[in-house]
């Protein structure tokens, strides 16, 4: 018995002797090195090889070197949160094939991550990168992390995410991206995360969700998009979310016109729990819940100029996005491009065309354009190619360079109204030219005939 006790004591002695200064080491429930809140400026150089858990949170660490944990091949849990880490060397976690949980959160000066920082962590299931001041994630940073289930990226400064950033994370279950600066949810942003259960995107600056953004999220149960800058979201975008149970879309400024109809239809089929969707425009529906509106209330189309002016001003005041950004993205549905009333979505002074008296409209229709060879169909297609679906990009730029008085007078887009209109030399004369020539003939008739009689009398 004494011999057995001596052997056990000798086995424990190296573990005790190698425990770093200012740290506490213990073997139950698992070999652990606890060095939290010790004011450490660097990672201890001597760490027991058999350690499975290392707690280094709440210190003053600044760098994680490639040699810091090179001997800890049994490590399963590593906590480095709440330090002052500014740099992680490439290969800092190389060789930690058994690592399951890594917490580097709350290091506000960690602005960038090396693309290969997490390479080889094939068994990692939890990664904390919250509150790190990250502005972007490098391409391929999560490559090969097939076991990852929980990814915490909230409270950073991320404005864009590369396509396929999470493509290798087929087992990802929770993705936390709230309180960042993401503006567009792209079609391929979440490609590959086929088992995602919870997606938190609230408190960003999202202005537009592309149509196929959620196409791989058939198992998603919770989607939070509240407190963003979304004005339009289509039902087709939401259709892939067949398992959705909890949806939060409040705190956006919804356009409740024909553009909201497909989302309104989708809510009729949705069986889960949802927040209210407070209408912002049109004014007579402001504050009402989109889901509770009647079908006839979604007819028509709110003027683009009204949406831009009102939404831009309110958002600029709240600091969410500047007035140069369009809350509508580049998609305006065909319901706003009806042939019967295109004037409802013309902005600014262009809308004054509809206020001209009939005589001015008649004169405007007779104006001869320089490019008269363009057909009516080509002109119509050109209008529908613009960013707002009404005016072309070239036309918008031309209007910006025009003198204001030209914009006021629709005729002056081809010629100044101070100049006389020239008659066409074509055989087919318009009414204006016919009247002018008729008047000229009458004048000649009254002048030439008396002159003939006078010359005959004198002879």
- The CA-CA distance between the termini, in Å, is 163 Å
Backbone structural class: alpha/beta
What is the makeup of the main sheet?
Answer: 12 strands, mixed
Shape: elongated
**Rg, alpha carbons:** 36 Å
Question: Averaging pLDDT over every residue, what do you get?
Answer: 76
Number of helices in the DSSP assignment = 9
Instruction: Classify the helix fraction into a percent range.
Output: 10-25%
Low-pLDDT parts are: 12-16, 309-327, 341-436
Element-level helix/strand string: HEEEEEEEEEEEEEEHEEHEEHHHHHH
Give the beta-strand count: 18
Strand neighbour order, sheet with most strands: 1-2-3-5-7-8-9-10-12-14-15-17
Strand content: 5-15%
Describe the 3D structure.
- The chain is α/β, with parallel strands linked by helices and 459 residues long.
- The chain has a domain at 347-363 and 382-411.
- The protein is 23% helix and 10% strand.
- The chain contains nine helices and 18 strands.
- The protein has helices at residues 2-17, 235-238, 261-269, 304-318, 358-366, 376-384, 393-401, 404-408, 431-458; strands at 24-26, 32-34, 53-55, 63-64, 77-79, 87-88, 101-103, 126-128, 150-152, 174-176, 184-185, 198-200, 208-209, 222-224, 246-248, 254-255, 273-274, 279-281.
- The strands form four sheets. Strands 1-2-3-5-7-8-9-10-12-14-15-17 form a twelve-stranded mixed beta sheet, with no helix packed on it. The chain has a two-stranded parallel sheet with strand order 4-6.
- The longest helix is centred in the C-terminal third of the chain and has 28 residues, at 431-458.
- It starts with a helix and ends with a helix.
- The relative contact order is 0.05.
């Amino acid at each position: 018995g004494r011999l057995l006790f001596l052997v056990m004591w000798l086995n424990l002695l190296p573990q005790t002797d190698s425990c770093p200064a200012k740290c506490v080491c213990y073997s139950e429930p698992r070999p652990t090195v606890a060095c939290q809140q010790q004011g450490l400026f660097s990672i201890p150089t001597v760490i027991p090889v058999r350690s499975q858990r290392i707690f280094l949170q709440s210190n003053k660490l600044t760098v994680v070197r490639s040699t810091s944990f090179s001997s800890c091949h049994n490590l399963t849990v590593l906590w480095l949160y709440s330090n002052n880490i500014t740099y992680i060397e490439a290969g800092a976690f190389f060789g930690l094939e058994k690592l399951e949980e890594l917490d580097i959160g709350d290091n506000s000066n960690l602005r960038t991550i090396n693309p290969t920082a997490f390479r080889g962590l094939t068994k990692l299931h939890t990664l904390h990168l919250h509150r790190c001041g990250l502005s972007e994630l490098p391409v391929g940073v999560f490559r090969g992390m097939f076991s990852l289930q929980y990814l915490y990226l909230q409270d950073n400064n991320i404005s864009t995410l590369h396509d396929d950033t999470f493509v290798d994370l087929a087992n990802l279950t929770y993705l936390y991206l709230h309180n960042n600066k993401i503006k567009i949810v792209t079609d391929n942003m979440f490609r590959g995360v086929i088992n995602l259960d919870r997606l938190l995107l609230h408190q960003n600056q999202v202005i537009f969700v592309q149509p196929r953004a959620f196409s791989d999220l058939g198992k998603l149960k919770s989607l939070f998009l509240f407190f963003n800058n979304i004005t339009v979201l289509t039902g087709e975008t939401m259709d892939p979310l067949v398992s959705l149970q909890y949806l939060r879309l409040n705190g956006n400024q919804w356009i409740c016109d024909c553009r909201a109809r497909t989302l309104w239809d989708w809510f009729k089929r949705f069986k889960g729990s949802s927040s209210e969707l407070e209408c912002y425009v049109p004014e007579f529906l402001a504050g009402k819940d989109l889901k509770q509106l009647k079908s006839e209330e979604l007819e028509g189309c709110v003027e683009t100029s009204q949406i831009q002016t009102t939404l831009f001003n309110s958002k600029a005041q709240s600091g969410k996005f500047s007035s140069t950004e369009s809350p509508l993205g580049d998609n305006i549905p065909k319901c706003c491009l009806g042939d019967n009333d295109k004037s409802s979505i013309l902005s600014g002074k262009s809308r004054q065309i509809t206020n001209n008296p009939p005589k001015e409209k008649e004169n405007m229709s007779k104006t001869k354009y320089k490019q008269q060879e363009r057909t009516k169909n080509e002109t119509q297609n050109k209008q529908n190619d613009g960013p707002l679906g009404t005016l072309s990009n070239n036309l918008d730029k031309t209007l910006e360079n025009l003198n204001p008085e030209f914009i006021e007078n629709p005729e002056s887009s081809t010629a100044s109204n101070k100049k006389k209109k020239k008659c066409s030399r074509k055989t087919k004369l318009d009414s204006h030219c016919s009247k002018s020539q008729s008047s000229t003939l009458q004048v000649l008739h009254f002048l030439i005939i008396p002159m003939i009689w006078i010359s005959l009398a004198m002879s």
